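The record is given unchanged here:
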Amino acid sequence: QDQLTPTRQLIVSPPVFKIAPGAKQVLRIGRLKPELPGPVERTYRLVLEEVRATADIPENTVGTVLRVTQPVLVPPLKPLPAALDWQAKRGGADDLVLTVSNTGNVTARISRLRLLQEGKLVATLDYPYSVLPDVTRELPAWNGGVRKAKTGRPQELRRGLPTHQTTEQAP
């Protein structure tokens, strides 16, 4: 579970804006105290929330508000290649729990994970997933909810450009 902590290290301009239907709005994000890049990527999450006046919501209706989050990443001085360590263990009769640790200094982006057992593709998980530097995460359990794969393509890891490809074997 990600822990979000408010910060005053970034500034967003404009801080409040109105967008007409079909229109676009450009936001500028800057750091209040410019500093040299560090050894590890700095990660932030920008949270945009719709503010609605109660007068805009008709009586006896439910009003919904839009909330969008977007990562803001400040690259390190010397980015290193993706460094993911994987572990797989049984979580139940048919469940396989995958744990991934990012020992690199930048966020790793996983777009597709394919599971091989004895050299054969048994399942795939198409789920965009990010693992921050120096973080260990547990991926969703592989069970009956995972669709069976039809092709033999390896796992795809995206960490900026280019795309790195690796294949993980199940125990």
Observations:
- The two ends are 26 Å apart (CA to CA).
- Confidence is low (pLDDT under 50) at residues 144-171.
- The CA atoms of residues 115 and 168 lie 7 Å apart.
- DSSP finds no helices and twelve strands in the chain.
